[in-house]
Automatic annotation (TrEMBL):
Pfam family, one: DUF309
Family annotation (InterPro entries): DUF309, TTHA0068_sf
Name of this protein: DUF309 domain-containing protein
Domain of life of the source: Eukaryota
């Protein structure tokens, strides 16, 4: 797979808005657009406003997507442990919805794949140094080694391939002289709309 490098910075701003009128104007379609354009911080704000006024089962779904947005915000701000925690909790809420098909089910599968990708690459990062590579397994020691390893380091960035598909790429500098491409995975895209969300009210 050949990539053209395309990195980005997540725009941050201070505090959360308490403007009730702005909250009322927030829509799920707006949240989807923000998520898919990777403005995860603003996406969080919109989803939080929707979550505050939602009823079950929509409330659980919105909360799950919100936590996924927070997870990606953490990931690209070098808080890898926080990313795994938020994505994991978000995935649990998505699975709680028991989707068997449709855009939310596809989103759930993509989030699950990314979470596994981050976990495996974090294990690799924690286990391997210039002096030593420790075999990782499911033991308590392995999880202790994982811990907050790599916190503050820029281990992941985005690249776009020739078909304009965006991928999360892990630690590419490590693979530069090895003749192999760095691990990568397609970044999740939410293909849902306000109509898909409204359908939940009739389940």
């Amino acid at each position: 797979m050949k990539f053209s490098v395309h990195s980005y910075r997540i725009t941050t701003r201070g505090g959360f808005d308490d403007d009730e009128e702005e909250d009322e104007s927030c829509s799920f379609d707006e949240a989807v657009l923000l998520f898919n354009t990777r403005d995860y911080y603003k996406c969080h704000d919109v989803l939080e406003a929707l979550w505050n006024r939602s009823q079950e089962p929509t409330r659980t779904l919105v909360h799950g997507i919100l936590q996924c947005a927070v997870g990606f915000h953490h990931l690209f701000n070098q808080n890898h442990k926080g990313a795994m925690m938020e994505l994991g909790e978000g995935l649990c809420k998505l699975r709680k919805m028991n989707f068997e098909s449709g855009p939310f089910h596809q989103f759930e599968k993509e989030i699950s794949a990314v979470l596994e990708f981050i976990y495996q690459t974090q294990l690799e990062q924690a286990a391997c140094t210039e002096e030593l590579c420790i075999a990782m397994d499911q033991s308590e020691r392995s999880y202790q080694l994982l811990g907050g390893y790599g916190a503050g380091e820029r281990l992941y960035h985005l690249e776009i391939d020739r078909s304009w598909t965006t991928y999360i790429v892990f630690c590419p500098e490590r693979y530069g002289g090895m003749g192999t491409e760095p691990p990568s995975i397609k970044i999740p895209v939410l293909q849902a709309s306000e109509e898909h969300m409204m359908e939940l009210e009739y389940l």
